[in-house]
């Protein structure tokens, strides 16, 4: 039984180990030089005699039971597990594309390497991820001007079931106690010009009700995460996350998905889903402990999605000349009236640049009211034409 796992984060590593323990021949592919994914960032020591780990290797297409890799190389599989994770979502405001504004994920990745880019920093966005980022920056000596959470914590009062099932998450809050005094809720950065940063108090729909100016060198922006679901453009999804059954099967035959591609719930849920997917792909019944961890973790993930859902009032933050698509320099006023994403792209060039809409497509869809059609690309990562030309003839149709 040949199992291929794409992604070596908490989900992919757990899936690969579990499948190899069950006797499958496993290959784990990841674009990074070391295993660990976003959370562990190279600090994980992955080793298993039954797993071949292909490092620095990007997968770009699933075609039947073949996975295409940059190179170009191909891997045949009996079962494929996709564990490609997520990336963080910025929202545009005047100045967000200038110096001194980065995503919260980028700030965290740099902090894990001991780098902070500025003295006075702000972390703004929504969701619990803001707290570890703020803590990491403060631990590196940055002055935390503010941690601005756009949502209201009162939304969590409706989520008693999820909280009861995941009490350990409350304990995790204690680790962030040093930054809690800087936390302001229903608040967001809505403009930055030089070191002058406009901070607004928001209503429940995130429309500004008042604002003030503070001074900071760096603003770290994170409005939740978007899944990297481009490898399976035809799989059934909800809100762009893959739909999976209780064995982590997607709607595509012999293809499983685990971790943040199925919903955002943290590294422990990703790992539990990896165990379930690895066992199921190898033909075993998933361990009851992992199944239960997935059940509880999903309650938390669903509560998180509700409590920190991006609200439409953000669409009042950009000015007409605010950049929406950084790659193609498309401003809000350049977005055309369109009925669908394809027409919007062709008429304004939004989402047509190097990032292929990963950063801007959802924002552009919300700003114009066109339905967001998800991350559906035939080729999942940018590849040179030479690599396509080098494919065997039978793959070129
Ligand atoms: C930038 C960032 C920083 C984060 N930092 C933290 C943190 O500090 N603390 C925390 O609790 N949570 C953090 N998170 C949330 C964290 O990602 C998850 O909780 C957890 O890592 C999810 O695990 P995963 O296995 O689903 O995906 P990931 O850990 O994201 O792993 C996915 C892996 O797939 C690889 N990959 C993706 N596409 C391809 C492809 N086409 N070909 C080959 N390889 C591919 C990626 O390189 C990555 O190594 C962070 C998220 C992001 C986006």
From TrEMBL:
<dbReference type="Pfam" id="PF07992">
    <property type="entry name" value="Pyr_redox_2"/>
</dbReference>
<dbReference type="InterPro" id="IPR041854">
    <property type="entry name" value="BFD-like_2Fe2S-bd_dom_sf"/>
</dbReference>
<keyword id="KW-0670">Pyruvate</keyword>
<keyword id="KW-0560">Oxidoreductase</keyword>
<protein>
    <submittedName>
        <fullName>Pyruvate/2-oxoglutarate dehydrogenase complex, dihydrolipoamide dehydrogenase (E3) component</fullName>
    </submittedName>
</protein>
<dbReference type="InterPro" id="IPR036188">
    <property type="entry name" value="FAD/NAD-bd_sf"/>
</dbReference>
<feature type="domain" description="FAD/NAD(P)-binding">
    <location>
        <begin position="1"/>
        <end position="274"/>
    </location>
</feature>
<dbReference type="GO" id="GO:0016491">
    <property type="term" value="F:oxidoreductase activity"/>
</dbReference>
<dbReference type="InterPro" id="IPR051691">
    <property type="entry name" value="Metab_Enz_Cyan_OpOx_G3PDH"/>
</dbReference>
<dbReference type="InterPro" id="IPR023753">
    <property type="entry name" value="FAD/NAD-binding_dom"/>
</dbReference>
